[in-house]
From TrEMBL:
It is an enzyme of class 4 (lyase). PANTHER family: 3-DEHYDROQUINATE SYNTHASE (PTHR43622:SF1). This is 3-dehydroquinate synthase. One of its GO terms (molecular function) is 3-dehydroquinate synthase activity. CDD domains: DHQS. Catalyzes the conversion of 3-deoxy-D-arabino-heptulosonate 7-phosphate (DAHP) to dehydroquinate (DHQ). One of its GO terms (cellular component) is cytoplasm. Residues 176-319 form the 3-dehydroquinate synthase C-terminal domain. Its cofactor is Zn(2+); Co(2+); NAD(+).
């Protein structure tokens, strides 16, 4: 697959990724290589990566616990301390091997250690490949509030190797599909329609879908790297989805949701808001709802869940002047940004979701 140019870095695929990486390491003469993994990728992905890494650099492996619960400033402090104790300097390179949590936190730690060291993202989950590792957003959660602390800073490269997907459970694969569905809904109707029947999907098909998804995200980000305009389109499904994800993360009576599971609900809810504003037809809304619900199991919401979820919307980082901002569909394949919705419509969207 041909590499994709993304601003001041490139995205490389499969075998070409390691050819690029090994040549890059020879060229740049880093003082030390640090590889950041979590407990899952250390066991399942790191051996494959190391077998293809050709370098004489000194390598240090740093492992953190896996999961969104560890995407915190406290974990960053531990990582900054580890880099310091292991002799990291401004000529060090941090390679992030893992899912969205690893690339988000690794990019943030690298961007702030010694006022910034180079980093490379090697996403090992579908979600990481098509979304989290692309676009330069790096950061951590503040308590249960998603991605409140962070920077926009590009890696030196992103390396996509779909072999890592063989290590994923099915729920993690579905989580990544949510972002791919989103890319079709906001940008490419033909791409969206490819997800109406996934029964006969081959590995080659998946590679092509991943490639197109990355193309779509990169096309949007390239127009608006700092999210002052069209990049807000990527927030479709995320305003309510992040609130739901945060609520389920903090509530001890709830089972935490994967990012894509929460975003799938958010896309249905925000499609309903698009319907209420007459931006999409009822037929389009039912098509969206049917396809997403054919992939994702329903999430149970009780009446007592509504108020805390609505309260979490206030903290969404996309808000301006105290108003909740939505990116809503303008037909399948197009988007309207900076939209507002009354709480009553949001409650109706939840009611319709539960039907």
């Amino acid at each position: 697959m041909q590499s994709i140019q993304a601003g001041d870095y490139s995205i490389y695929f499969n075998e070409e990724a390691y050819v690029y990486l090994n040549a890059f390491l020879i060229e740049h003469h880093y003082s030390k290589l640090f590889i950041l993994v979590d407990s899952n990728t250390n066991e399942n992905c790191l051996p494959h990566f190391l077998s293809l890494l050709a370098t004489e650099n000194e390598i240090e492996i740093i492992e953190i616990e896996s999961g969104e619960a560890f995407k915190t400033i406290e974990t960053c402090v531990q990582l900054w301390e580890s880099l310091t104790e292991l002799g990291g300097d401004r000529k060090s390179l941090l390679i992030n091997v893992g899912g969205g949590v690893i690339t988000d936190i690794g990019g943030f730690v690298a961007s702030t250690f010694k006022r910034g060291i180079d980093f490379i993202n090697i996403p090992t989950t579908l979600l990481g490949m098509v979304d989290a590792s692309i676009g330069g957003k790096n950061g951590v959660d503040l308590g249960n509030l998603k991605n409140q602390i962070g920077v926009i800073n590009s890696p030196k490269a992103v390396l996509i190797d779909t072999v890592y997907l063989e290590t994923l459970p099915q729920n993690e694969m579905r989580s990544g599909l949510a972002e791919m569905l989103k890319h079709g809904l906001i940008f490419d109707k033909d791409y969206w329609q490819k997800f109406s029947n996934l029964d006969h999907l081959t590995s080659d098909d998946l590679d092509e879908l991943i490639y197109r998804s990355i193309e779509i995200k990169n096309a949007i980000v390239s127009q608006d790297p700092t999210e002052n305009g069209i990049r807000k389109a990527l927030n479709f499904g995320h305003t309510l989805g992040h609130a739901i994800e945060s609520y389920f993360l903090e509530n001890p009576l709830k089972t935490s949701l994967l990012h894509g599971e929460a975003i799938a609900v958010g896309m249905i809810l925000e499609s309903y808001l698009s319907l209420q504003k007459e931006f999409i037809t009822h037929e389009e809304y039912m098509e969206i709802k049917t396809v997403i619900q054919s992939i994702f199991s329903p999430i149970i919401f009780e009446k007592k869940d509504m108020e805390p979820i609505l309260n979490l919307l206030i903290h969404d980082k996309k808000n301006e002047f105290g108003k909740v901002q939505f990116a809503l569909l303008n037909g399948i394949g197009q988007i309207k940004i900076n939209q507002h919705a009354e709480n009553q419509w949001i409650m109706e969207a939840f009611d319709d979701y539960k039907r």
